[in-house]
Amino acid sequence: MLKIVGNTIIQEKHKATCHCGAVELELDLPNGIVDARRCDCSMCRRRGAIVASVPLSGIRIVKGMEFLKLYQFNTFTAKHYFCANCGIYTHHQRRSNPEQYGYNVACLEGVNPFDLRDVATNDGVNHPADRQRAATEK
């Protein structure tokens, strides 16, 4: 749990935005940033984001729902959302836990992700859902 990043205190209800400001989210972060991580799957390693998790009820779209675009691939379980104007990834419904959203820590107001140290990397290349899918296709 991270309650402070750099000089920014993580609020219980913290604002997050895309680059152009068309999409604005409110995140419920009573325990601060929880489970910050990177992932090495084909999508995450290209976008380079640090993500953290909240329950599905932990994100509220304040404005810009019409600018959010959905992208899905592979198992089509995860739902990745991006701003159609500026292209910034804001959040996704997780495939490893579809009851949670992962959100882009860099979108949090006042947070510089380079202030985070020792961020763990998940093995998304060898994701358990991929192995289950491969086994059922044989």
Give your account of this protein's structure.
The protein is mainly beta. The protein starts with a strand and ends with a helix. β1 (4-5) and β2 form a beta hairpin. It is built from two helices and twelve strands. Helices cover 12% and strands 36% of the residues.
Summary, kept brief:
The chain is mainly beta. It is built from 2 helices and 12 strands, in the order βββββαβββββββα.
Q: State mean pLDDT (0 to 100 scale).
A: 89
Structural class: mainly beta
Structure summary, number of beta strands: 12
What strand line-up does the widest sheet have? 6-11-10-9-8
Question: How far apart are the termini?
Answer: 41 Å
What about the largest sheet? Answer: 5 strands, antiparallel
Provide the gyration radius in Å. 15 Å
Q: Which keywords apply here?
A:
2 helices; three-stranded antiparallel beta sheet; single chain; disordered C terminus; 138 residues; mainly beta; globular; five-stranded antiparallel beta sheet
Topology readout:
Elements: E1 4-5, E2 8-9, E3 13-17, E4 24-28, E5 37-39, H1 42-47, E6 51-55, E7 59-63, E8 68-71, E9 79-83, E10 89-93, E11 100-104, E12 120-122, H2 128-137
